[in-house]
Amino acid sequence: MPIRQLSVSGVRNLAPLDLQPHPRVNFIYGDNGSGKSSLLESIALLSTGKSFRSNQIKQLIKHEADRLELRCGLSTEPADENSAVDMEDEDLKELYSLRLRNGDVLFRFDGSVLTSQADVATHLPVQVIEPNTFRLLVGSPEDRRQFLDWGVFHVVPEFIEQWRVFRKVLKQRNSVLKQKEESWLDAWDSGFVEASEKIHQHRIHYIEQFVPRFEETLKALDPNIQVRLAYYPGWEKDSNLADVLNRQRERDLQVGYTQSGPHRAELRIKVDKLAAADVLSRGQQKTVVAALKLTQGILFKQHCGTAPIYLVDDLASELDSGHRLALCQLLEDLKCQVFITSIEKRQLMESWSPSDYKVFHVERGEVREEPRLDQANAEEPQG
Fold this sequence. Notes:
- Helices cover 43% and strands 21% of the residues.
- By secondary structure, the chain is of the alpha/beta class.
- It is globular and about 70 Å long.
């Protein structure tokens, strides 16, 4: 579902805006601090409930405002099928989010209230590639676990409910451990193991599909980078989780929480036997993360029939011209909707010359659509 209408109000330095993005490629350029990243941040916030620039949602709300409002009209047709469709002929579904400074949130889709951010994400799947995207490699195991689960969540419909069940059982088991009620553990352990195995099997199946696609994608971006992915389930490899819990029971009771399980899983990214973050340059790290996120889009499209929306902030950051061209070519092949920013318009157009696109200029928080080069030339008076 590509975005065909986008309204933003109360976000950072952005003036209230109402845009009609292109269903394929949207070039956005402007000086540092002009608001172009805030535009992408608004879309990411609507989808994920998080900012890729700040951990504090309150920091996104314009200083003098008490709320922010995000609204987008989503096309019912995939991006690669509706580039020539007139918006007046499209059936758009409205996705709306209201966030108050006090923390209250409201979501609606097509007039119906949504009860969770996960419900929103199913309608607006988004992948972000931005200057700090290398944090996926250098950050915590939780960052990579969340990355993995994004893919599983979007291709396995029952995963989210099974994850909620697991989190509930984990919370209950931890409560028993804190209360030192060892006699209750046998009853909770069986449910914990059952819920854990479901999560683990979904992840394993996804990783088996992911790894060969990732290797192909990374090779297309940079054949000189050799990276290996390994999935650690959260307990000793080739061990039965029930046996692990039994062996660790005394220690779990001492520390007051469950030390092994899917909540401790990790996607390990290595060069030879070393962590990739300790070996690769910043540019190489960004290339690897771009390959990871592109691979998720490829698998998403394979399972769902359409690709997620890609937000590429500051295309030139850490990437030379060759890697920018390779990244844009893979996005072109994916036929997804893309919002891509840069300081210079020329840099954007030299990296990518799609046939279907729009150009937006951001200046002091104001976003203005510009005519395409071919349209501008056609409108010039003939001498």
